[in-house]
Task: structure prediction
Amino acid sequence: MNYKDDGLALHTDFYELNMMYTYWKQGIAERNAIFEVYFRDLPFGSGFAVFAGLEHIVNYLKDLHFSDSDIDYLKEVTEYPQAFLDYLHDLKFTGTIRSAVEGDLVFNNEPIVQFEGPLAQGQLIETAVLNMVNYQTLVATKAARIRAVVGNDPLMEFGTRRAQETSAAMWGTRAAFIGGFNATSNVRAGKVFGIPISGTHAHALVQAYRDDYNAFKAYAEVNHDVTFLVDTYDTLRSGVPAAIRVAKEMGDKIDFQGVRIDSGDMAYISKRVRQQLDAAGFTDTKIVASNDLDENTIQNLKMQGAKIDTWGVGTKVITAYDHPALGAVYKLVSIEDEHGEMTDTIKLSSNAEKVSTPGKKQVWRITRHGNGKSEGDYVALAYEDIANQESLYMFHPNFTYINKTVRDFDARPLLRTIFDQGKLVYELPALVDIREYAMQCVDSLWDEYTRVLNPQEYPVDLSQAAWDNKMSIIKRIKEKVNWHQA
Ligand SMILES: Nc1ncnc2c1ncn2[C@@H]1O[C@H](COP(=O)(O)OP(=O)(O)OP(=O)(O)O)[C@@H](O)[C@H]1O
Ligand SMILES: O=P(O)(O)OC[C@H]1O[C@H](OP(=O)(O)OP(=O)(O)O)[C@H](O)[C@@H]1O
Ligand SMILES: O=C(O)c1cccnc1
Result:
């Protein structure tokens, strides 16, 4: 039997449902629980990440419900009793979500999304929330790295054909726009998200007319703004001369905006193409480049003095080619006990960096008062008032001898309330505003953190209270384990 795909409630791992069932059956499904999302390593060797995915999370949680067909399916493939299925059928999201907002810079080992509410609901949403944050943050970060090396040059996203299926193409295109791309070739993403669309033409057009001149002429006769793809046969001997000939013949009837090169040594070829265009009087005609580009090839081409004005990037941005998963995790940091008290929880590991930080937290972005430049992030327990402190002692959570005292600072909380006990209290910004905000955030970082190669490590420190809390919980658990072993 095939079921209708009519919602995202089952976009979860089966083990989440099995845990929900356990909590429900044992009577603790409604206990207050706090889960936090964080990642341990920045992707691509980057000094920062750009947070994206919140809009999809909001849409998902607003509409979170098990449909009739979800329940029919679970009835067929699981052994859950009818009473549990009824509980699922009636379930609505009543949790509180605090989160970074799209375009915010986020760093490793700090909470970027926080759930507080009924334990069972917190468990259910883990998979989908991670799915959305991991992919979109990854692509927005890759895009921001590419933006960092192109300066103000126009940047077009061409990735849909190489994306991991259709929904990745859509959300990836959106994330690339947030990270600093100017336009996309994906028309559906233009329609749905309002991203500007742009495009040239493919080799097929030239192949269909069997030579450059006839193809460009046909194209120019019916399109006003034209960019010709000049590398189908021979860029310098055939493609560019044909483009120039058509442009001269058509005169004012077209706007000869550019030529695109998609193969060969792009530093050498672009310089020769520039000479050819300039010699023919087309000094304003731009050179567009594409072909497996990313921040590394683009930076290299710039160093070689390539005469490229506009960049088309597909595969490497949409698939986050060199770092295909962000690796954000979702950990339980606090849970209500049988007396109604919150107890902080930890996940231990022999690797110090993998030990989770217990307790409900807030991240404070510390900037220097006056110039707004970043000093680091300060992860404090949620009850601590950081903004009104005179001075702040910041120390590395693993190497505590690395420390500094900051005075005359501004502290901004990163996690904002998005849902308050199930009610959406955050107004989703327009996509262009998110992108603008992301660009401002990147600008506020020192260049040492934004350079693409071997950036400085941005400080993410724990408050003394958060650190003490973590150490005392580790000690308590170790004593308990030792006691069991004795
Ligand atoms: N001057 C350059 N410096 C560094 N990298 C370059 C330079 N020119 C091109 N590249 C990059 O090198 C790679 C070239 O790969 P390859 O030789 O397979 O492409 P190609 O010449 O386009 O061949 P094809 O015709 O099969 O597409 C691409 O990723 C391209 O972006
Ligand atoms: O290289 P990317 O960064 O992924 O950018 C997208 C690529 O898609 C197109 O090539 P494709 O061979 O698919 O089609 P074409 O016939 O138009 O060249 C385009 O020419 C780019 O090379
Ligand atoms: O418009 C383009 O030039 C384009 C679109 C998709 C993929 N590659 C190039």
